[in-house]
């Protein structure tokens, strides 16, 4: 299973990014401990695209991610190893609706939407993305980790909690029954 998830950190100019007729931005490849797997036994290669200062249209970022997943699947079919990928960016204002979401949660008609709205193949309800909100898109092959989506989401939450604590001295936690990382009563990061 290749997982494409979104999480809510050399920047690359927007004009070099994500238009399918143009070359994709180059990554800064690195070897990281498999933090998501929470083990020190295996080191995996990770392509890291740091565009946290860029506003990237959602449709372009989504298309780019699907291209990466397609290439990873082709490598797996040929029994080749493939690296994990992490993309960090911001979006222009946009709403996404997951596979089970309801338009009833929008405060406007889809026909007269004030900003772009996209239905995606991902989980989650209605999610807003916009300037100032860092979005992280990890693309990993769970065969190298653990084949369990809920485990993966809890592991991502744990990484965010640890980074907030160790880097920013912010105490964050989970709320039973909800997905995401919370500071006080404010949802800091929604994993959809």
UniProtKB/TrEMBL annotation:
Recorded family membership: Belongs to the LipB family.
NCBIfam families linked to this entry: lipB
EC number: 2.3.1.181
Cited InterPro entries: aa-tRNA-synth_II/BPL/LPL, BPL_LPL_catalytic, Octanoyltransferase, Octanoyltransferase_CS
Domain BPL/LPL catalytic, chain residue ranges per copy: 80-192
Keyword Acyltransferase recorded: yes
PROSITE patterns associated with the record: BPL_LPL_CATALYTIC, LIPB
Name the UniProt record assigns to this protein: lipoyl(octanoyl) transferase
Gene that this sequence comes from: LOC113701222
Keywords: Acyltransferase, Transferase
TM ranges: none
EC main group: transferase
Pathway: Protein modification; protein lipoylation via endogenous pathway; protein N(6)-(lipoyl)lysine from octanoyl-[acyl-carrier-protein]: step 1/2
């Amino acid at each position: 299973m290749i997982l494409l998830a979104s999480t809510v950190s050399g920047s690359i100019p927007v004009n070099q990014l994500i238009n399918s007729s143009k070359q994709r931005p180059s990554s800064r490849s690195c070897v990281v401990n498999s933090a998501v797997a929470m083990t020190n036994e295996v080191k995996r290669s990770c392509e890291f695209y740091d565009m946290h200062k860029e506003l990237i249209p959602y449709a372009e970022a989504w298309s780019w991610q699907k291209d990466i997943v397609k290439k990873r699947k082709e490598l797996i079919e040929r029994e080749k190893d493939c690296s994990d990928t992490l993309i960090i960016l911001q979006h222009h204002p946009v709403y996404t609706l997951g596979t089970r979401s309801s338009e009833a949660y929008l405060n406007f008609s889809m026909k007269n939407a004030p900003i772009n709205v996209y239905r995606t193949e991902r989980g989650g309800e209605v999610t807003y993305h916009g300037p100032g909100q860092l979005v992280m898109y990890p693309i990993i092959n769970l065969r190298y980790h653990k084949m369990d989506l809920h485990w993966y989401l809890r592991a991502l939450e744990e990484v965010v909690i640890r980074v907030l604590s160790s880097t920013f001295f912010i105490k964050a936690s989970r709320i039973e029954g909800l997905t995401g990382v919370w500071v006080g009563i404010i949802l800091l990061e929604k994993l959809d």
